[in-house]
Amino acid sequence: MKLTARSITTLLLLFCLFFGYVISQIGASNSSGISAIDQWQVLPVMEAASASPPPLPTGQEQGWLQADADHPMGNEDSANPESLEAAWIRLKLPDLNDGKSALFIQNVYARSIHIYLEGVPVYDHTRDYNIDANKLLIPLDQADSGKSLLVYVYSSNGRLGIQSKVEIGDFSQLQRTYTTIDITDFLIGCALVFVAAIMLVCTFFTRDSHLSSWVPLCMIILTLGLLLITYSTAVYSLYDHYGQLFAGLLDRSLFVFLPAMTYFFLTVIGPGKYGIVRKWLYIQSTYSAFCFVFSIWNEITEGRYDSLYYLFSVKIMGIFILLEFALLIATAAGYMFKGNRNAMMLFIGFGLLGCAVTTDLILFYTSNFTHRFVIWKWGIVAFVVSLVAILGKQIAEHHEQVVKYSKELEQFNNELQRSDKMEIVSGLAASVAHEVRNPLQVTRGFLQLLGQKASEKEMAYMNLAIEELDRASNIITDFLTFAKPELDSVKRLHLSDELRRIQGILNPLANLSGGKIILEIPDDLYIRGDSSKFRQAIINIVKNSIEAIKEHGQVHILAYGEGDAVVIRIMDNGEGIKPEALKKLGEPYYSNKTRGTGLGLMVTFRIIEAMRGTLTYSSEPGVGTEAVIRFPADPENGK
Prior knowledge:
Structural class: alpha+beta
Radius of gyration: 44 Å
Number of strands: 18
Distance between the termini: 54 Å
Shape: rod-shaped
Strand order of the largest sheet: 3-2-4-9-6-7
């Protein structure tokens, strides 16, 4: 089974979803024996609200409002007014079982929390950083059954109170839930940070052409991982002394993520219509830089501008996020419809992330800023997988291009080496052939004269010597043809006539080998060239095919027109040629024959090149060999 980028992406996404589901179920398992407090009472503190609690409202019964998880600060009409900064929450504990029990609240919004059990303080915690989401685990004994629990909550962020059910049950079970309730976010975040760290190390070994997409992708994955880690309540519950650091990382990761995402889109997908993505990058980068500097300034001033900073970094930034998602998704869709596969993968991943974040943001705004983001982390998993798939596809395409260029370079080097060899042989042939041919002709003439007076036995030796001189003369002729392959008489050649003459010349040789020559040539094919040189080249090829076939073999000569070219295919069912030998065909002095010089095929290549044609061979040992020759068709072909 061939794994494509799309199938790998799907597998990774399914794995991450399954992994997250398993982790999220850890806290939900073994939940038997857990009861819930669905309702409680709230007493708003309207004056002099501060992180330090006012006197306990012991004995005060007026002003208390009935509340629950859907209406955390009382009835629906007065739910969580933004001007309210502090409140008392009163819960009535049910009957507790024997053994160690506990009270667990998954989500409480407050910067300062103080808890009293029948007037006795059992928990107090105040944060000096701008994170107001908490989870609480309060140990209880059976003696606490029926007692009242008073919780003082304070926050200046405009959201306050218990936003979930209050669970009562076995301490060990609730402690396990308390520990694992946000572990999914933390583990996925750590995994993304680890991947980003590995990718950043690989940056030093990455080609410059990839850096424009590789570096922003690293920053996207890194910031998304940090967002998941620092948004989880687990880190603030377990490592509260680093809370200021985590809170700063949360905001600044978001400020870096948005411009990095836009820049990655710009480099990998494109600027969009009218360059709108590039323009948005300038706007988003400017606002993110402003928020980044503001976060540092607010931290230096010890939170003096918390309310203003919350407006810019949460409420207004949320609008920027919605606008960016809408813009990039719409632009990706436009590129996708144009056939851009990268845009298609990004559209799917970004669409899933956009839907998840948009859903969370809509719930956040419609709940008067009390909704806690939980859906977005699964969109992040899909989004990161799509980004990695896009980059992997790009690297694979670059690799294929490099392999293609390497093959072309190897072919060019082979051609260059062949050209060098040809030039050497050509120079040698031109200088030697003329010097050797004349002495050979003189020697042959004297041998013929001596043969007239020789005995019968001597005559046999004379004839043998003359034959060898003729063979040497033919080799010199090949040398001269190779050295100077110019065509003596270029004219219009009727391909059918030329090939039938060649068939007539070579039929006796084919019959001696027990084979036959089959012609399949239409009458309307014409090329331009030298008739004698053309026959010499084709005869060399066909002779090689005849020598390769066995009894009942055949040589099939086929010709046809193909666009502006005429194609001649010479096929045999002989013994074939090994791949390593096939690469060397046409090289100087290379031959498969015992007494061969390799000059015949060299001359053939040179003649075909002189006629502006090409010759290529393909073969399979034990099956046969095929030579394909292509010549430019005569402009008046068939007329």
